Structure formats: C-alpha cells, structure tokens
Amino acid sequence: MNSTHMHPLPAQLDVLIIGAGISGVGAACHLQQQCPDKRFALVEAQAGFGGTWRTHRYPGTRSDSDLFTFGYRFKPWRGNPIATAEQILKYMDEVIDEHHLSQRIHYSHRVLSARWSSPEASWHVEIQHTPAEGDPVICQVRCNFLWMCQGYYRHAEGYTPEWPGMSDFAGRIVHPQQWPQDMDLTGRRVVVIGSGATAATLVPSLAGTCQHVTMLQRSPTWFATGRNANELADTLRALDIPHEWTHEIVRRKVLHDQAHIQQRCVQEPDAVAAELLAGVREALGPEHAHLADVHFKPSYRPWQQRLAFVPNGDLFKAVRNDQASVVTGQIDRFVPEGIRLSNGDIVPADVIVTATGFNLNVLGDIAFQVDDQPLDFARSVTWRGAMFTGLPNLVWVFGYFRASWTLRTDLLGDFVCKLLQHMDSQGKRSVMPQLRPEDQGMSLAPWVRPDNFNPGYLARSMHQLPRQGDRAPWVHLQDYRKEKDDLPVAPLDDGSLIFN
Ligand SMILES: Cc1cc2nc3c(=O)[nH]c(=O)nc-3n(C[C@H](O)[C@H](O)[C@H](O)COP(=O)(O)OP(=O)(O)OC[C@H]3O[C@@H](n4cnc5c(N)ncnc54)[C@H](O)[C@@H]3O)c2cc1C
Q1: What's CA 466's distance to the chain center, in Å?
Q2: pTM, whole model, 2 decimals?
C-alpha cells in the first residue's frame, strides 16, 4: 500500500494540494494529466491516503452511494455498486500507482498555516511533519496556488453531544470515528445512537456479534433498499464490453435514474415515500412490517437529507431476525445501566455507540492570512462554490450531497486546470473573486441553503462558512446536472474574477 514516503517535500511549488482523500488524489491526477509542467505536491496529515475511508474503521464501513459515480470518471469501477472502505482504499491505491503519484504525496504532513503575499503572488505554507520516529519538524513551502482537498469535517474526533449523566454510565461510550480496534462485543448489549448512514451500517454489522443491538434514534430517516448490484453493469460485463465503456455507460444510467428519482421527490413526494416504505416493509418481513410506519417514516420529504441506501436490506433483516431493534425517542439522560428516555423507558446497554455525526472543520483548521490580515472566512462570498472573495489563488473541493462527492472532484479538476492554463496564457500570477458593482447589495444566503439540505453538522456550523449570493457566479449550486453544463463554460472574463 502507498502509505510511506522517503522523498523530501520541495520548498518551492506551483500548486500545493492539501489532503489525500478521494478529492486530493483526484486533483493530483487531473493536474498531472492536464497541466504536466506544473510543479506540485500533495500533503496529508495522516500517515496514509484515503481520508474518510482511512479514518472510518468501524465494522462494516461502506459507501452509501454507488462507486460508478463515487469512483473517478477516468478509472473504471469493477465491483458491486456499494463498496466497503477496504475496496475503496484498494481502488485509490491502484489510482496512485497507475498515475505514479506516490513520490508526490507527503504523508504525516499537516498544514498549520498559510500566508498569502500579494507582492510575491505566493502562499507561504507552514507544515508540521511528524515522522514515524523522532520529533515533529516544521517545514516551509512557497507555492502559487492552493488546491484545498481537506474535506469538511475534523478527522481527529467525531461529534458527540453532551447528555446529562454521561459519566454515570457504567459501560463504554464509543464514537464510530474512533472505533477501538480491540473492541470485543461478545455477549454485550449495544445501543447505537443515530439514524444516519453510519448507524444503518453499524447495526447490521454488529447484529449477531453481540447479544443485541438497538438503534436509538430521535427521528426516522428515509432509507432505500435493494440488491447491491447494478443489472446494466452485470449485463455489460457478461457481454465482455471493455471496462471503460461499462463504467461510462453505467455512470450515465445511475445519474439518469437519480435525476428521475430527485425530480419525483419534488413532484410527487408522497408516491416516492410510499414506495420507500413498501421496500422497507418487505425487507422487514410480515411479522415486523408494522415497524416501518413507526421507525422508518420521517416527517421531512425524501432526499432533503442524503437518502441512505441499505444494500440487500441488511439493516431490516437484522430487525427481522430479532438480532437488532429500533427505538425512536428523546434521550432524557444516561444512567448507570443504559439510557433513560423522556417517556421514562430505560434502554439497557453495556456499550453505547454515538453515531451522531461530525465536527465541521473550516479550511482544514489552517490559520489563513491574506497580506497580514487574518482571514474571516465567514465574510467571504463564494464564486460558484469553489473560490471565495478575499482569498486569492485558492479552490476548495466541496462535493455534492445528493450525488456522489467525486463527480465534483472531477468537474473542479477540469476547472482548476483550465483556470491555471488561462492565467499562464495571460501572463497572470493571481486570481481572486470580487463582487462587481452590480453585485453589491445582492441578498446573501448560507453556504448551503437549509431548505435545500440540512444535516446537523452543517446546521451547527453554518455561521463559520462563506455565504452565497442570489445570482451566478455567486451561487453554490449543489446540483451536478446543472453544474456539469455550467462550469466548463463559466466565463473567466466577466469581471467577477480579478487577475493580476
Ligand atoms: C462513513 C462515510 C461514508 C460516506 N459515504 C459517502 C458516499 O457513499 N458517497 C459520497 O458521495 N460521500 C460519502 N461520504 C462523504 C465523504 O466524506 C466524501 O464523499 C468524500 O470522501 C470526501 O473526500 P475528501 O477527499 O474531499 O475529504 P476527506 O475524505 O475528508 O479527506 C480529507 C483529507 O485531508 C486531510 N487534511 C485535513 N486537514 C488537513 C491539513 N490541515 N493538513 C493536511 N491534511 C489535512 C485529512 O487528514 C484527510 O485525509 C461519506 C462520509 C463518511 C464519513
């Protein structure tokens, strides 16, 4: 596996990519292919690549979207649509090998600060290298452009709310993001707090390995269920169609089907809800089907939060086999023997798993300065959800929620390369979005509109994120179908980008 390095980090670069998750590795591939003359490196705080898929090591960690679209457009996916963390890491390992990137990636290198100097048109980046042995060392890198692929949440620690009585609980409390590798749940009663994709993955994985597992949720989530297979992919593979073709055709089919479902969620949410519930009822089986209306029927419309896919209905099968159960209720407090709900019921537990989400991290927790002024990121306005007023020569890869994140990694890969080529052709060294006279006073909205998408970690931290405007190019679309057409032809000379 590509996880060690023996090569020094160059002190002078054209582009520095920060983060070796799916976004950073994709960025490196695009840059190398489309701008072969650029001197670049990729720095990663952790001791290996993978980001999300390296950090999350709880039992059963898997994707919730299909790998035909979560995979890169340039690297065919050959497995089942929903993939385990191991499969995704193996895929990324192959990409790093095939693109000869291992010499470019510097692991255990955490960026601490970045200081922009306008006269030099350079970022001065301070990086802490923590070698496997010996003390950490600080290195300095000067670069012209920062490609931010640091994701959106803090990898070191997940989000656990403070509940009364937590210290009274006699058992162990674990966050899935820091899953202890020595965890033995044999004979234990486990309660998983949460109802998102993480809880839906953990519960069936733990069922059968412990005495009983309970999913304790405040409110239900919409789940889609079906076989972990793609019929079209299976057919094309059986016909020996080249993998590249199969990948592209299945991607188009997946996107087409998703667009159809999303449209239906808006136009006929009740019909979609009824179909999702029918799928859940069937997976629960006749004896447990009544639980669908109690625990799997949310009050919001489908797709307002990421619609989690339960491959092969495994969550519902665990309930059907009585290895798992679901409780919907408000937590009053932790008690020595488990969790007391506001209706007085006690949910008994030996181990409590808090699948309660993330802590947002803003720009990789890096201290940014622009010409000696500390950056107030929350005051920025975004340019197409990629660049920011007041922040020169920087792009942040923030993917899609409703479609696979990586679709945007590829789109922004093309965009950044085009932008860099444009700057070179014009003899320019810096680019920064700036509101034009006609944009002054436009109404501003949060980074992600809450009526559009509202998971807890965003709601908690939206005030730290930049805002968007009410017109192009100041809108953060979060819409792959529109952006795939808009971004490649986005004008660079409409006055919203200042080049120097
Ligand atoms: C369990 C789980 C399942 C998911 N499943 C899906 C899915 O199926 N489909 C989907 O579209 N999305 C999914 N997501 C969302 C997922 O996080 C993104 O899709 C995607 O993996 C993010 O990739 P990234 O490379 O942008 O960021 P990350 O994976 O977060 O990687 C960022 C990297 O940057 C590094 N970094 C951060 N700050 C610094 C710094 N200061 N210096 C150096 N390095 C730094 C981090 O260590 C990390 O390795 C899932 C998320 C989780 C947690």
Answers
A1: 18
A2: 0.96
Q: Encode pLDDT of 13-38 as tens digits.
A: 999 999 999 999 999 999 999 999 99
Which DSSP helix (H) or strand (E) runs through 110?
strand 109-117
Same domain, 468 and 367: yes
Q: Which of 338, 354, 370 is the last residue of a domain?
A: 354
**262 in a domain, yes or no?**
no
Q: Do 364 and 343 lie in a common domain? A: no
CB of residue 196 inside a 6 A radius of ligand 1 = no
Q: Assess whether the C-beta atom of 56 lies below 6 angstroms from ligand 1.
A: yes
| CA–CA dist 334, 170 (Å, integer) | 10
> Which atom of ligand 1 is least distant from the CA of 112?
41
Q: What number does the ligand 1 atom closest to the CA of 22 have?
A: 25
Which ligand 1 atom minimizes the distance to the CA of 49?
Answer: 49
172, 110: one domain: no
CATH of the domain at 174: 3.50.50.60
Domain, as residue range, for 67: 12-155+359-499
Burial class (CB in 10 A: 0-12, 13-18, 19+), 172: middle
111 lines ligand 1 (CB under 6 A): yes
Going by the DSSP 8-state scheme, the letter that residue 311 receives in this structure is E
Ligand 1 centre distance from Cα of residue 429 (Å): 30
Q: How does pLDDT run across 337-357, given as a tens digit for each residue?
A: 999 999 999 999 999 999 999
Which of 374, 399, 401 lies closest to 386, judged by CA? 399
The predicted pLDDT at position 2 comes to: 54
pLDDT tens-digit series, residues 268-315: 999 999 999 999 999 999 999 999 999 999 988 887 776 888 999 999
Whether 364 and 350 map to the same domain: the answer is no
Measured from the CB, is residue 63 less than 6 Å from ligand 1? yes
Residue 124 lies in a domain: yes
Query: Would you say the CB of residue 66 lies under 6 angstroms from ligand 1?
Result: no
In the chain, what percentage of residues exceed pLDDT 70? 98
DSSP letter (8 states) at residue 462:
G
DSSP conformational letter for 409: H
Q: What is the mean pLDDT of residues 385-412?
A: 96
User: Chain-wide mean pLDDT for the chain?
Assistant: 95
Instruction: Mark which of 354, 388, 413 sits at the end of a domain.
Output: 354
The residue whose CB lies within 8 Å of the most ligand 1 atoms, and thus the one to mutate among 404, 405, 409, 480, is 405
Specify whether 201 is located in the same domain as 334. Answer: yes
Question: Length of the chain, please?
Answer: 500
Q: Is 20 in the pocket of ligand 1 (CB under 6 A)?
A: yes
Q: Are residues 55 and 185 in the same domain?
A: no
* C-beta separation of 202 from 310 below 8 A: no
State whether 348 and 365 are in the same domain. Answer: no
Q: What is the mean pLDDT of residues 216-235?
A: 95
Q: H or E stretch including 18? A: strand 12-18
| Banded model confidence at residue 459, pLDDT cuts 50, 70, 90 | confident
Per the structure, how many domains does the chain have? 2
Distance from the CA of 51 to the center of ligand 1, in angstroms?
5
Same domain, 63 and 193: no
